[in-house]
Amino acid sequence: MIHDCFDELPSELRHGVVSIGNFDGVHRGHRRLLARLRTRAQALGAPAIAVSFEPHPIALLRPQFAPTPLVWPGRKAELLRAAGADGVIIYQADHRLLDLEARAFFDDIIRGRLQAVAMVEGPNFGFGKGRAGNVDTLRQFCREATMPCDIVGLVEGEGEAVSSTRIRGALREGEIEDAQRMLGRPHRIRGKVVQGDQRGATIGFPTANLESIPVLVPKDGVYAVRVHVGETPYAGACHVGTNPTFDQEKRKVEIHLLDYSGSLYGAWVEVDFLSRLRGTERFADLAALKAQLAQDVDEVRRRVLTQEQEQERSSAARRAELCSTISEWIMQEVEPSLRTTGGSFGSATLQDDGLLQLRWRFDRTPLPHERQTLLFGLEQQLRRVFPEVTAVTSTTDSMVST
Ligand SMILES: Cc1cc2nc3c(=O)[nH]c(=O)nc-3n(C[C@H](O)[C@H](O)[C@H](O)COP(=O)(O)O)c2cc1C
Ligand SMILES: Nc1ncnc2c1ncn2[C@@H]1O[C@H](COP(=O)(O)OP(=O)(O)OP(=O)(O)O)[C@@H](O)[C@H]1O
């Protein structure tokens, strides 16, 4: 459920485990937080609620520094839900909210409106006027209110915390792959196809010109992209920038879709930036431009193919990440009671079809009902908490000395 204010919150969005943040981009750091939000919510039998702001509070406080967002609000909500939130509140920030001191923010919003039962944040969380409240303040307020407060570890990339600010910086520099590593997926823009100068078709490379783009467009240059037209993806060569060859100063975003024929005027398309080919150049004549465009298209074909192979590899990495979250959950939720019966958790592996294989160690032969609990009780719980898990197998290794 998505809700856009704190007034009259429906009951599904109250009494939840809450995470608050801008969540711009819903990057890998945010997703670790949301995974914890979900496990904590599940343990407490409460909904997992993500609260975000639109526009970014800086847009109200210091508009000249307002960052261009990485995602549009609808996509942010979609990504937050896919990462584990049952409910998403996208609050239209106003001065009244931003003027609340940390104490008042906690009392009025977190306890008052949201009626939160627990909080989950990252170590660099800030709240209240001027971000005066930090995780220590939050921990203290939660302790006083006897509610759990989980602070997850920072997700880092190249030795530095992944953050929305860093991702914006990478995109502005054209470092598409760096942005993709931090996001855990390609950067996506959306825009409406409008009429260009109609020159593209005459040189054999028709282009869809995009306008009304609500998110950050990477640095000027040429990129291999994937264009989503409705449900169908197409490989594309995207040019961002002016047309110096034709002495045109207007900065445009135009895409030549490979293997596509037909009109796109008026359609909204979504575009994933996969990799950067080169900067914009001034060509001596039309023939030189056409020759370069043909090379660009060949290069796009090659790179899109490579990207698809890499995607296969990165889905293996995502599975490994999920597997470590599951292991953490088992250690927290199952291991303590298992220890009293002489058992302990061994390892977990997750296959691409969602089959989770668990290994347990027992210092004696487990009793039938203990096996039963491990196999069935836990399987049901795991499938509820981690919907990616479709089935569970358990192997018990008995360390019995004979
Ligand atoms: C993949 C690609 C790369 C491009 N690279 C350049 C470039 O380096 N320099 C340039 O002046 N124009 C470049 N263009 C822009 C073309 O000049 C432009 O597509 C053409 O002028 C058609 O414009 P129109 O869509 O407004 O009709 C590129 C276009 C595409 C699709
Ligand atoms: N790399 C990270 N690892 C874990 N948690 C993170 C990470 N980055 C942010 N968080 C947490 O996610 C929540 C929302 O963070 P928010 O989106 O405001 O920060 P951010 O991504 O660092 O953005 P910005 O660069 O704009 O500060 C906070 O609790 C924050 O501590």
Q: Can you describe this structure in just a few lines?
A:
This protein is of the alpha/beta class and 402 residues long. It has twelve helices and 17 strands. It has three domains: 2-151, HUPs (Rossmann fold), CATH 3.40.50; 186-282, Riboflavin kinase-like (Elongation Factor Tu (Ef-tu), domain 3, Beta Barrel); 283-401, 2-Layer Sandwich (GMP Synthetase, Chain A, domain 3).
Which secondary structure elements does this structure contain, and how are they paired or packed?
Elements: E1 2-3, E2 17-20, H1 28-44, E3 48-54, H2 57-61, H3 73-82, E4 87-92, H4 95-98, H5 102-113, E5 118-121, H6 135-144, E6 149-151, E7 156-157, E8 160-161, H7 164-172, H8 176-183, E9 187-194, H9 199-202, E10 208-211, E11 221-229, E12 232-243, E13 248-257, E14 268-278, H10 286-333, H11 335-339, E15 343-350, E16 355-362, H12 368-385, E17 391-398
Parallel strand pairs: 1-4, 2-3, 2-5, 3-4, 5-6, 16-17
Antiparallel strand pairs: 7-8, 9-10, 9-14, 10-13, 11-12, 11-14, 12-13, 15-16
The protein binds flavin mononucleotide and adenosine-5'-triphosphate.
Flavin mononucleotide (FMN) binds at residues 196-200, 205, 207, 209, 222, 237, 239, 243-246, 254, 256, 280-281, 289, 293, 296.
Family: Belongs to the RibF family.
InterPro entries: FAD_synthase, Riboflavin_kinase, Riboflavin_kinase_bac, Riboflavin_kinase_bac/euk, Riboflavin_kinase_dom_sf, Rossmann-like_a/b/a_fold
Pfam families: FAD_syn, Flavokinase
